[in-house]
């Protein structure tokens, strides 16, 4: 339940205040908040530096002291990147904000980006989702709910971005206290090694950025292909994203379950098993989505959107594929030391998906756009599976595939960093 609560509350909590905001201040206020959220989330993808993809498995088998040190280093690395990136997002949000709502838009943008400093990726890696709940998710939900009540009772609109900012700043502070980060952990690396840390995260960051491109731009591309495709595609895509928050829960567990194993051979076998299990779960989710999407759309969108059976079936297949790639990428390829392959798969997804959605919408409307989305997700899965099979074959043919207690010479050095006092990954990872 803790693993499930994290993604669900993460998805729902920012929306708790919207009814009060629109009722008290109208649609222009909501537009100002939406602009800030979009710009802040985009900046946050860069600020996060891909730690959620590559970091969870690394910290899973670290000692408590090294874990705290790694989180401290991540905070400093994010700050170095975040100052110019968040500054740019703030300036741009001020320029694009509706008249009279500049401060609100800027506040929401800053909060969305600063939220990426949290320690959730560490708590997921060490199989402690409740710490994630207590340090970030629940406090934010409570603060946003308080702001919603305040606005409903006649309070200022600023209470909403103020609540988001307070939650965003308090999360890394609380996380650092829980993980027992020392002040010297924030100063443990000089400028040169800090630059190496940022460079070490380049593949994970590239994957996050490219994934966000074809995911976040899907509705825009579908609209460019055909305005008539927008309603169906955007509505079904929203339902898919809501379900993805639920599907993320088992992926959170598998990251820690696989990553905590020190023996490389067992860790790889666990990663393969996790991918197979997620593929089966994905088929179940996809089937349920295909059958339930038309009825759910009637409820969620007040019967303003009709989802044809073919569109529901295509979207269901996309759900199944997405659930599988959550594991083949973030678990299996990371375990095999092939984070760059995750970035490659995201690039292929963008190259295939954006034109496929455009021409699908142009030729077949919303259903065609959903077909283009399925092609994008399918291409991502193919690239990831091929990369994983190639790496496993290399290990097997070279005789270096780990068995039992033997260690893979090509494994990241942090596999040996579980002993108290060990420095994680000194050979390859500057952290």
Which shape, going by the Cα principal axes? globular
Helix content: over 70%
Q: What's the gyration radius in Å?
A: 22 Å
Mean of all residue-level pLDDT scores: 83
Structural class: mainly alpha
Poorly predicted spans = 403-431
Query: What percentage of the residues does DSSP assign to strands (E)?
Result: under 5%
* Number of β-strand runs: 0
Order of helices and strands: HHHHHHHHHHHHHHHH
* Count of runs of 4 or more consecutive helical residues: 16
Distance between the ends:
32 Å
Largest sheet: none
Number of domains: 2
Task: Summarize the helices and strands and which ones pair or pack.
Elements: H1 2-12, H2 18-25, H3 27-47, H4 51-60, H5 64-96, H6 102-114, H7 120-125, H8 129-152, H9 159-179, H10 191-200, H11 202-216, H12 218-225, H13 230-259, H14 264-300, H15 309-335, H16 339-398
Description:
It is a single chain. This protein is mainly alpha-helical and 431 residues long. The protein folds into 2 domains: 200 residues, no CATH class; 207 residues, no CATH class. Helix content is 77%, strand content 0%. The protein has 16 helices and no strands. The chain is globular, with a radius of gyration of 22 Å. The two termini are 32 Å apart.
